[in-house]
What we know:
Elements: H1 7-28, H2 39-72, H3 92-121, E1 129-136, E2 139-144, E3 149-152, E4 164-168, E5 173-179, E6 184-188, E7 193-197, E8 203-207, E9 213-218, E10 231-237, H4 239-249, E11 253-255
Parallel strand pairs: 1-5, 3-11, 4-10
Antiparallel strand pairs: 1-2, 2-3, 5-8, 6-7, 9-10
Amino acid sequence: MPTGRHPARRALRILGAIGIAGFLSACSSSFGMPRGASEQGRDIFNLWQVFMVAGIVVGAIVYGLIGWSLLRYRRRRSDDDDALGRQFNGHVPIEIVYTAIPIVIVIALFTMSFRTEQRVADLTPDPAVTLHAEAFAWGWRFTYEGSDVRVVSDPSGEQVTGPEIALPRGEVVRVVLTSDDVIHAFWVPDFLFKRDAIPGHVNEFDVTPTDTGTFQGVCAEFCGLNHAYMTFRVTVMEPGAFDRWLDERRGEEVAS
Length: 256
């Protein structure tokens, strides 16, 4: 076949190969999203999966129709060079379908998003641990309610590691968050969860860790000179180990 013939078919093959490769890559990496190391994060991850699947389906339909149109209505050798093809205006059933389907998709995704947000923001009446988190420029002060254990940042800087706190796996932790000066943010990327620390305002939220390990936390709102060094670490351990961790530090103020 001489070079230059059937460019539409070649373009479709290339687009198809790219689409399949992208789809397989996305599937193998959870669509590029971590699964979340907390129950709230898992809810968010599940919602993300629904959005990604919906996007893939819609994209496949759109590109499939484009490819079908390129093949079905391409100019053929036997066509008159001046021919425009059969012309028609309006197709009410098709117009109703391509209007109704996006509306249904938007309503469904909005409803799922609303329900997920309600679950993630819900506060249990009896949390296992209450952790007071105070943000300041540029560090953190964590206090475990009822145990007199306090973890405070050292003066922040390039070689200074942030404070390390502990949380029990599988138990609800209430975080009471505020700021002493400007707006900061409490963000643990692996938890898929972020809340702003606002001066003069208390933000309360629950987090239920599901995976043991140490996870990095950061301030996610630009707050000044040492914003990049305003970090902390969260070590999730089994409840028994957490109780021992608290007992060993009871009545102390632990610096990072």
